[in-house]
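Q: My labmate handed me this sequence with no annotations at all. I'd like to see what the chain might look like in three dimensions before we decide whether it's worth expressing. Could you predict it?
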Amino acid sequence: MKKLLNTLFVTQPDVYLALDGDNIILLKEQEKLGRFPLHNLESIVAFGYTGASPALMGYCAERNISIVFLTMNGRFLARVTGESRGNVVLRKKQYRVSDDEQASAKIARNFIVGKIFNNKWILERATRDYPLRIDVAKFKEASSNLSTIIQDVRQCEDLERLRGLEGQAATCYNKLFNQLILQQKEDFYFHSRNRRPPTDNVNAMLSFAYTLLANDTASALEGVGLDAYVGFLHRDRPGRVSLALDVMEELRGVYADRFVLSLINTKVVNRDDFYKKENGAVVMTDEARKKFLKSWQSRKQEKITHTFLGEKISWGLVPHVQALLLARFLRSDLDEYPPFFWK
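A: Here is what I predict for the chain of 343 residues:
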């Protein structure tokens, strides 16, 4: 369990939440695992669904402390809030900002700054770790170009221009992505991003990783009371979790891309894990999908230092922390939305 930003994250499986005076206690098979004062909490996020006592839910509802239930894999199940106070003010602010393109751009540019910064440091780290296996000069040139684009993005107040700058940065990064594949290069290669359907093994894995990340991020946003379907950079489209796609931009490279590269370079996956359909789409086998999901869950348990909080958290909690920070910004508790930076 972990307390961050006045939110208690209960990440251990099979934990029951109960009330003891003005405290929440965490029980597993009648053993007390922890005790926290409720007056310090704004919300409780429980991974797993063993349950919570009616007394605790009633206490929290009266004091506007939300209780969020997710599966152990991070899928959103339910959010318990009191009366109609819930999230109406937060969501109304989200909708107002989304309707204002200039205000949207000022938030969206921070998502893009985070994405480009993280992609820049993926390239920088490669020059440090694999100087004899990549073209260091090209990587350094790309890193410098990304730094220049970041400065332009920071000043941008127009959504269309912001999308253009993001596209320039993506092109710069994608040109070198194939060099980050160090093993099994005959079977795993990246020439460009393709989807619907993916036509090679790498794009098939990237699409799957992005889908998982989008689902995790949407759950995190629902957990803090935001509408995952109303975004700032990605505009409204029926059935699209636009805000989740916004927030996950800064995590695509550092979270999903690096994960896919690790599966290839450590030979967790191989050519036999894929097959091509008649329409040219490359699909992962059922066994490969199981390996992928198992590794994804393991990666979510690995620790990372969150630069804004200055604390070590698991990778799996990063979308939840970013969702909390975005909600705080929209409530005017923060002057600016702080993107997730990795280095």
